[in-house]
């Protein structure tokens, strides 16, 4: 499978699962209005999250070129992307509130559900990281 297909699939599944996880968490806390707002997260995620697809594509292409096992590749990607997700939501909080933090419950919940959704999306695609992708070789220098 090509890195573009894998990255697009992971990106789309992450956004969908993020909306589902956020909606379920808000329903569990009794916030029905905010849970319905998960539909807005779904729609806005696909619109505003589109620039992150090429970034994910690039990261997958770079990680697949490294001589790691599938678990190592996924771990590196989740670690890098988890940091980027936290920085992204903290930056949004900085723009809105003037504080670079995830202390606000909504921002922390969004960051947490996004990272959890990303982990699940990578879990669904774990077999793709154990093989060589089309056009990418994993040759070790001699």
- Give me the oligomer status: single chain
What is the string of SSEs from the N terminus onward? HHHHHH
How many helical elements? 6
Q: Let me know the largest β-sheet.
A: none
Poorly predicted residue ranges: 133-137
Mean of pLDDT: 83
> How far apart are the termini?
27 Å
Principal-axes shape call: globular
What class would the helix/strand composition place it in? mainly alpha
Cα-based radius of gyration, to the nearest Å: 16 Å
Number of domains: 1
Structure summary, number of beta strands: 0
> What fraction of residues sit in β-strands?
under 5%
Secondary structure: helix percent: over 70%
Structure description:
The chain is mainly alpha-helical. The chain has one domain (3-129). It is built from six helices and no strands. It has helices spanning 3-28, 32-36, 38-48, 52-64, 70-97, 105-124. Helix 4 (52-64) packs antiparallel against helix 5.
SSE blueprint:
Elements: H1 3-28, H2 32-36, H3 38-48, H4 52-64, H5 70-97, H6 105-124
Helix pairs in contact: 1-3, 1-4, 1-6, 4-5, 5-6
Descriptive terms for the model:
single chain, 142 residues, mainly alpha, globular
In short:
With 142 residues, the chain is an all-alpha fold. The chain contains 6 helices and no strands. It has one domain.
